[in-house]
Amino acid sequence: MSQCESPAPVSRVWNESFCLSVVAPVYNEAEGIAGFVAEVRERLAALEQPGRCELVLVNDGSTDGSGELLDRLAAEFPGEIRVVHLARNFGHGPAVAAGLDHAEGDVVILMDADYQDDPAAFAPLLEKWREGFDVVYVERASRQENPVSRGIFWLFYRVFDWIADTKSPMDAGNFGLMDRRVVAQLTQLPERNRYLPGLRAWVGFRQTGVSVPRRARYDSSTRVGLRGLWTLGMNAVFSFSYVPLFVFRIAGVSSIALSMVLVLYALGNKLMGHDLGASSSILIATSFLGGINLFGVGLLGEYIARIYDEVKCRPVYVVDRVAEKPKED
Ligand code: UDP
Ligand code: MG
C-alpha cells in the first residue's frame, strides 16, 4: 500500500505556530456548501491540534449563488475561511492550483467539496504526517459511482500505471495531505495541463497512503462531467507517458513489414505466372498506410497541442478577488 513504510525522522512543527490548510474547489455547490463547511470545521476541531486551521475555498465561477454563500461563511467565521473567487469557471484543475497558491499552511489537505471525500480521514492523514511522511494520499477503498464508471476508473488507473513513466498510486485521486515542501514544489511547476496525482508522485519525498471509502455525492450530479474526466485522462496520459508515440512507431514498423510481405507475395505470384489484380492490392496497401499516417498525425498533434499550451504561458487561472475576515483579537 505504501511506497515507504518507515521514513527517516524529520522535524514536525506541532505547536501554536502550526497551521493546517484545507483546500477545496467549489463550482455550483450552493445546496451542499454550508453542510460541507460545517462538517469540515467539526472534524478540524476534533483534531485538537495546537495551532490554527484555515479553509481555502475556491469559487470556480459558480453561477448558482455559491459565491455569495461563501462570502457569508467567510464573514461568519473570521480568520478561518479564505474564499478565492476566480474570474470565471476555469475547471477543477485550475481551481485546485489557485487553492494551493492561496494556502498558507505547513500542511495542506486537498479535497472536493461535494461530500465524496470524507473528512474523517483528517486524523489518520495527520498521524502519518507526524510520523514523517510528506505526502499521504487517500486510496479509495470503495466507490459509490455506478458500475460502468467504477469499471472505467479501475481500468484507467491500471492502464495508466502500465504506461506512465512516473508511478502514481492506484485508485488515488486528489484527496490527500501534502507537506509545505511538496506544495512549494507543485506551485512552482510551470506546467499548464496538470494531472495532480501524477505531479504529486513526481515530486517525490516520503509518500504513503491511507485507505478510506469514497462517499456518495450529495446530489448525484457531477460538475466535472464526462468531458472534464476525458481531459483529465488525456492530461495524465500525454503528460506522463510516451507510450502512445511508441505504439505508433511499432504500428508504422509493422505496416512497413506487412507491405514488404505483400510485395514478396505479389512477386512470387508473378513469377509463378498468376497475375494479382493490381488495383485491389494497391487499394488495400494505400488505405492501410493512410490510416496509420492519420493516426500518427493525430497522436503527434496531442503532444504538439500541449507544447503550444506551455509555450503560450497563459496563467492557469485569473483571480477576481479574495474574501477573508481577519480574526478580531
Ligand atoms: N469543480 C470545480 N470546477 C469545475 C468542476 C468541478 O471547482 O469546473 C469542483 C466541484 O465543485 C467539486 C470538485 O471540483 O468540489 C469535484 O467535482 P465533481 O464532484 O463534479 O467531480 P467528480 O467527483 O464527478 O469527478
Ligand atoms: Mg465528486
State the share of residues found in helices, binned by percent.
Answer: 40-55%
Shape: elongated
Give helix and strand order, one letter per element, not per position. EHEHEHEHEHEHHEHHHE
SSE class: alpha/beta
Strand residues, percent: 15-25%
Say how many strands there are: 8
> Main sheet: which strands, in order across?
7-5-6-4-1-2-3-8
Gyration radius over CA: 25 Å
Q: How many separate domains make up the residues?
A: 2
CATH architecture of the largest domain: Alpha-Beta Complex
For the report, how would you describe the main beta sheet?
8 strands, mixed
Bound molecules: uridine-5'-diphosphate, magnesium ion
Structure description:
By secondary structure, the protein is an alpha/beta fold. It has two domains: 19-223 and 315-323, Spore Coat Polysaccharide Biosynthesis Protein SpsA, Chain A; 243-312. The protein is 48% helix and 16% strand. The protein contains ten helices and eight strands. Strands 7-5-6-4-1-2-3-8 form an eight-stranded mixed beta sheet, with helices on both faces. Helix 9 packs antiparallel against helix 10. The chain is elongated, with a radius of gyration of 25 Å. The two termini are 45 Å apart. The structure holds uridine-5'-diphosphate and magnesium ion (MG).
How do the helices and strands line up, and which of them pair or pack?
Layout lengths: L18 E8 L6 H14 L5 E8 L6 H11 L4 E6 L5 H10 L5 E4 L11 H10 L3 E6 L6 H17 L8 E8 H9 L7 H8 L3 E6 L12 H16 L2 H29 L6 H35 L6 E6 L5
Parallel strand pairs: 1-2, 1-4, 2-3, 5-7
Antiparallel strand pairs: 3-8, 4-6, 5-6
Magnesium ion binds next to loops.
